[in-house]
Amino acid sequence: MKKYLLSLAVVSLFYTESGACAWSDPDYEYFNLFTQIIIKDKSYLPFLHSYSTRFYTDFKPSMIPDENIDSWKRYFSNQLSYAQTEYLVNKMNINDLNALKKGSPTNQLLVTLGPRFYQRYREGLDYLIEAKYLEPYMKINYIESADSFYYYREPGTGKNATNLDYNKTIAALTSLYNAAKNPEIKQRYGYQLVRFNHYTRNYDAAVKAFKTYVEPLKLKGAPYIMALDQLAGAQRGLGMNSEANWNFFQVFRDSKSRKESAFISMKLSDTASFNNILKRANTNEDKNMAYFLLGYEDFNNPIPVMEKMFEINPDSEILKVMAVRSINELERSYLPIYYYTNDDNSEKTITGTDNTDPGKTQTAEPKKEELSFWQKIIRFFKNLFSSKKDKNSPDGKADQSDDELLDNPDRIPVFTRNNYWYDDKTKDFLDDLEKFTSKTKEKSKDEYWQIADAYLKFLKKDYKASTEILENIKTSNPEYTEEIKRMKVLNDIVSQPKIDADYEDHLMKDYSEYFTEKPEVKKDSTETDEYNYYGEVPSTADFLKDVLANRYFLQGEDGKSFLMNNKLSDLQYSPNSSLVKSVEDFYRKTNKTQFEQQIIAKNINDVGNIDAFFAVIYGDRAMRQADFEKAKSYYAKAQNFSGIPRSDWNYDEKKLTPLKYQAGAYNGFSNISDLVFGHNVWVSYQSDPDESMKKEDYSAFPFIKPAMNKLELADALIQLKKIGNGKDEKSAIANQLIGNVLYNTSILGYYRQLFVMDLDNSNGGKYYFDTSPRTNPYKYYYKGFPDRIYIEPDNFDLAINYYKRALSISANKEQKARILFQMASAEQGKYYQYEASHPSTVDYSDPKYSEKSDAYQKQLDQIKNQKYRTYFALLKAQYADTETAKDLLGSCTYFDYFMQ
């Protein structure tokens, strides 16, 4: 027999895939395509699959009717609706009922029911008055002991059953019991006697009360179930765990609204609870229920239990609960909401690590298992999307147009990669669950099993078979109908390898409801208005957007892929050039389809002036490449830029509101300090500019203003560049100032935010050094774009080249020392890039981890000193006696260390 250790394996894979944090909610991290709550018996809703809570809670409480309210509704001859009955029994104030009894009701419901209502239902209403009097006290007195688990201390009241006079209360309830004529009302007083004795810890008296006042009436309705629940609690208090457990099991079996609490009580009563229940089960119904509880508790291996339940009753509703839990588990493992990967199979060179030849270049060997993985992925998807044979081709080969989508190993289809991502046990489970479902749908009269079978075939990518099953299902169940409709859409869209204009028209014509925004639904009285820190629960529409985003990604339409899941303003978080260009191309496209106009283009949101927004991004990139003329041409188009679009959280309104820039504040374009031309006194990004930065002598360059916008800054650099072509000291300073700007706006500089669409230099995803070819994290689509940062790396040689020219022209030794230090700082940036692109591959589990890590660090230090200390060495050798060098020794720790 196969053992499916799904829970641990799937949770592990799930968290790896989604990149979930410790505070995330796993039930917000899958799409729930197969709707669990379509089971017909809603009393089992708490036992559907959930990772976030002990029981499933994503349904309205009103979906599970309370048998006690149903019983009262019948008692009142169905004159009241369920909601009115629930209000009367559970929420109406005792004073309102007393006023009705006196003939002067003020409660509107009671006034509407009329004066004869009390006369007709006197016994029941008198009971409710007594029950409402007792209710505030019906809690067990708290004692710090093993029993404390089922005591709820209600804040502010402190009342419990011992606050009532025991003898008077027992006498009153007994008298009322004897006086009652209606057997059901009589049994309710019996329930109160059992409960009161239980909560005062008179356990023997509670057991006796059940046998004396409840059992002889031979009624098995709601009052009996409620009394049986109290009896079981008293038996647990007496240590009669087996008897208590059996009675809790009967409550679980017969009650609709108390299944969850009865299940917990069974768990607390007896560690071997469900196995002992199975031994006592005589009827098929009891056995089936016991098997369900066993399977629910030991969900690692559900199918053997499901087989036993199938043998008893293939139409069992609880068998469907087991099946939907299994399907939900598979869906979570096959369809995570994020597809992240940090695989890097590119070759990396490590220079100077061969002890026999320090100058030899070594090529790191690619990880064989990762290459094998990608090869299998590519081969699989080529086969997948080439499944339709070309009838006109004599050799039956597929149309090559589909294959061309898969030539880039960085672009892998989302969703359908699962067979190579999850282990064999998960695939075996899917196969065996499909076999079980196929067998059950032949025996059961419930269409549910056909829907389940179609969904499992969908997970296995057999879209044709899935659709055929769905087309043949005949049902009048509205929940089933909705699920069938959704699954047909899934099969259609997921099986489509290429999205063209015709298919987009098809989406808008037939499936627009899955893509158009729906008006906000007003919450009912049972829902809270608290802010949801996890965001919206992923939906079918979200899944379909992901599939389409991936298809556009495969097709090279990155702009459309990006806008399926992101706003235009999100480009600020990772403004890499190729993506920005693709988004702009889509923005400027004149012949957009209806789908492109209404679904994709709606995410080209308010960034102020859109043209200015793009111009700033392009201008910034040109500045980082030291192409000041190009930058100026872009910035000239950006003078209407209204600021980087940011939002602040408004705690009063519980929503994001646009950031309003204060006068004189840097907004992404304007109000740049002339300190950007200076040099840093010390490396402290959190300090004020005047503390971290020092001005150079700008007197010879009046076009450098105290505060500039980016257009003015670009123009100033162009003028400095022209002056720098000379041979005098002014030319040297001009080149030095250009080098300063390039360094100060690099990842190491105090003004590193200027050309990456950021507002300050605080640390974050934009500021990292890795320059390896596969750094771009987007391999499937651009979902979660602000969380996965990639910006083209700095080119420190640009700053170094300007410094070199300044050094070659200048005749001032002090100035040369300062220039050399700036060059050394830029060279340090090159080393950081190298180090980040060559991380240690030593495994933490390696017994020689420390030894190997130390050896690797020694190699890095050797490389750093041999290749990335050129200008420090020159500064030490030729300029150590300068005042500049002496001053640097006191303010720069790593320079002081190098000079030792």
From TrEMBL:
Keywords of this entry: Signal
Compositionally biased tracts (Basic and acidic residues): 388-400
Highest taxon, organism lineage: Bacteria
Organism listed in the record: Chryseobacterium nepalense
Protein name as it appears in the record: Tetratricopeptide repeat protein
Signal sequence annotation: 1-22
Positions of region (Disordered): 388-409
